[in-house]
Amino acid sequence: MKRSRAAGILLPITSLPSRYGIGTMGKEAYAFADFLKKAGQTYWQILPVGPTSYGDSPYQSFSTFAGNPYMIDLETLIEEGLLTQKDCDKAGLEPYNAKKASGKSKVKDAAAKTTGKIEAKNEAGSGKKSYPITGIGAKDPMYVDYALQYTHRYPLLKLAYANFLEQKKDQEKSYKEYLKKQAGWLPDYALFMALKDENGGIPFTEWEMPIRLRKRKALADAKKRLAKEVGFYEFLQYKFSEQWARLKCYINGIGLRIIGDIPIYVAADSADVWANPGLFQLDDQCIPKAVAGVPPDYFSATGQLWGNPLYDWPTHEKTGFSWWISRMRHCYELYDMVRIDHFRGFDEYYAVPYGHKTAELGEWEPGPGLRLFDAIKKELGPRDVIAEDLGFMTKTVERMVKKSGFPNMKIVLFGFSPEGDSGYLAHNHERNCVVYTGTHDNDTAVGYYKRASRKEKAFARDYLGIKNGREFAVGAIRSALSSVADTAVIPMQDYLELGNEARLNMPATLGGINWQWRLLPGQYSDELADRIRRMCFVYARCDDGNLADGSAK
Length: 553
Description:
By secondary structure, this protein is of the alpha/beta class.
């Protein structure tokens, strides 16, 4: 009988170990794919891969179509002759001596390291161009220093572009083919980024009115004036696409599938909004009339004010949802399955009047419902989607998710309420869902247990059949793997039993160590892969296969 049960591991590309300060699509990505294969996994789930803006959140990107230049592997550029080893080594991106890295971090508790200064007003991009100052970054190999990446990596990439221009004849055909294929979004994105640089990084809503409103003459003048800069940003996307295609081909070739992640919304300061203002609820100066968020909930007493512009859904529907169809088509060129963040926003979306300081006074408005996904299915055919349905769920949202047929999400760490019988507990799951111990937005299993109430801890121990907190992470993982859910995905931090210092994000906050955690060299091993595979085999999520060292079971 063919098994439908499967398992995966959640780890962002930027969280891979690397020589130059941030995870990339280089040899470490291939090594981690091999680790997943040895561990009996079917899926590698990642976070959004777009170019990050203020706050470094992958959920606030300058483009929903573009790839993150930080993820372009420098060592691959060295192999291609676009950079030299000397160029990269002297750039100051290597924050530690890889040979001496012990796997230990200087930071014991991330909660004590979240007070860095920031000038950006919110993750959507309003405010000045700046980066969080955390006091760690290059001083600690466990964390990405995004400010360092911005100031030191881009000069390297510009040098690579200059060398590419001298060698372009060797790749001219493939480069032209790439530019032609991406003509629907790339020229606007590249010009947007060049204009941002010219304007000192300020949001496009602060640019001079002719270019902000895309007047024909202003656009023509900018394209001519910034031709070289536009070419640079097109080159970055070419290299990102090239490296991603090779990596995905390898991942799929060894029997793994990639679960991608897309935000429901795009950033206010993005090429998407600037190039398509009619698709959003904006005034005649491109200022949002209302912005996205969620009301007060588990994560924040004042709600979460995301600041993203809201879609003008009637206009989208008049176009047959063509922009969304293009977006999803692009996603499926990158990923095999797509997790859509904040799925309930398609049923009803929360609109907060522009200018409000919190999300407490918003209103729910009707979304497009399944009409959007029917249009996507008609154009692209059946596709694998995970519906992120966390948070407060209404009956209409539940009906929409069920009718869509998409698997929804269950989070083990949300289930240990002392009252018991939470829908997140494994015995209440259904097959058509994806179960996680936790997501990028909540604490690691170890971190959760450390901060849980006495009653929550007692209930968790009773439910998991464990004696103490030292057994909690493995107990939570086993609960997820044993679930009837077809798919179980475990954050890498939980397999490593890491604490709060390895948390990826604290919702409703900006700066600190958000989005910075990454693996250290040697932190995962064949022995760990074997332990993971054994657990997955016990719960029928992989075959018996071979041990990681190659010996038969």
